[in-house]
Amino acid sequence: MKYIRSNFFKSFIILASGSLIAQMVTALVSPAMTRLFTTTSIGEYTYVLSVVNLFYPIIALQYDYMIVTEKDEDNVFALLKLSFILLIISTILITIGYFVINFHQKKVGLITVILSIMMLSNGFVDIIGNYNNRYKQYSLISKTYMARSLAQNSLMLIAGYFKLGIMGLLLSQAIGSLVGLKKQSSLLMKERRKVLISSFSKMKEVLIKYRNQALYTTPAVFMGSFSYNALNIFIAQFYGNSILGLYSMSYRILGMPVNLVSNNLAKVFYEEAAREYESKGSFFNSYKKTLLLTIPLAIGMFIVLVFFAPQIFSFVFGKNWRVAGVISQILAPMFSAKIVTNTLNPSVAIVQKQGYNMLFQILSVIMFIFLVVFVITFKSKIYVFLILYSVVNTGLYVYMSIIYYKFSK
């Protein structure tokens, strides 16, 4: 009962409630999505979206992440200004690069514009989200996330009804990502002048102070993003867009509990663990509480997927999507372990040992390349490839959770 009444648990519930509703909306809309769009269309959409997801998490070089724990208010405003500048510069460069590389593709101009909107809005949300997290505005974060998800899914249904195909799917994500930005940034807008007048010297100071974010965390995050998005690109090229559509639906559904638990609980864990580390020199109590929440959830998810995934996917999404359920069975160990590891990931930022994230991602990329070479050499079927991929990544997630435990002591 004492744990249930704790601020840690209450903060998690506030964040999780909005995410739960948002995930429920996505879950309810998904059966319609599989009937309004073909597996090939969803695969093409996933392929294009992978380009966005490859870069947007790193366009501010992870400096915005330090807004949460920075003690000096002037440094906070400098971090904000630096993050916004990096966001704009990175988006421009990535957009130009995409346009040049895909110049001869159909509708490249419109797709490029959509990509730039999505990267800017997603990057802005991340920066503002960290500022909200600093002041424990969990209710606001929760409500805007819910509104954003509702808008994106509603627009997706409209696009499907009018048979807009891949362009409809992309536009629904781009337009929907803008919902709630004004409300979420209301607190920061009151301090916008302090952000604008933040000096170059102050920005240089925080740039150097938190250089590990750019030198270690950013490459680690990029490699993590590369592992997933390169996987999508590989599946599309080697097995076809239809298989990618099935895989992406499996990943979409399995990602719901991971996002619900990890994304929200990680915010609360980071804030509380950082304060505990500051006062005690360790954050084992926060680590233990988080572990006690995530492990039962991970086990429950694993059991449901292993025994019932094909039947659930066939019933909910239609018989054509039963294969996605089989894929979910294969990926069950990896996603179950991911819930725990992703939640505890802020541990490296707390102890300023971002190099371990780099190590994890390097291992992940190396193993992915090895698996791709193996599959191409032996012309393995998709199930064989995914089994190997799941086993390797499950082991890596367990290894990192052990590392986080050592950091907490």
Structure description:
The chain has 409 residues and is an all-alpha fold. The protein has one domain. The protein has helices spanning 7-36, 39-55, 73-101, 108-134, 138-161, 165-176, 181-184, 186-189, 192-196, 200-209, 211-239, 241-280, 284-317, 322-344, 347-350, 355-378, 382-408. Helix 11 (211-239) packs antiparallel against helix 12 and helix 12 (241-280) runs parallel beside helix 14 (322-344).
Quick take:
Keywords: Cell membrane, Membrane, Transmembrane, Transmembrane helix. This protein is mostly helical and 409 residues long.
What labels would you give this structure?
0% strand; mainly alpha; single chain; cell membrane
SSE layout:
Layout: H1 7-36, H2 39-55, H3 73-101, H4 108-134, H5 138-161, H6 165-176, H7 181-184, H8 186-189, H9 192-196, H10 200-209, H11 211-239, H12 241-280, H13 284-317, H14 322-344, H15 347-350, H16 355-378, H17 382-408
Helix pairs in contact: 1-5, 1-12, 2-4, 2-6, 2-11, 2-12, 3-4, 3-10, 4-6, 5-6, 11-12, 11-16, 12-13, 12-14, 13-14, 13-17, 14-17, 16-17
Protein name: Polysacharide biosyntheis protein
InterPro entries: Poly_Biosynth_Transport (IPR050833)
Subcellular location: Cell membrane
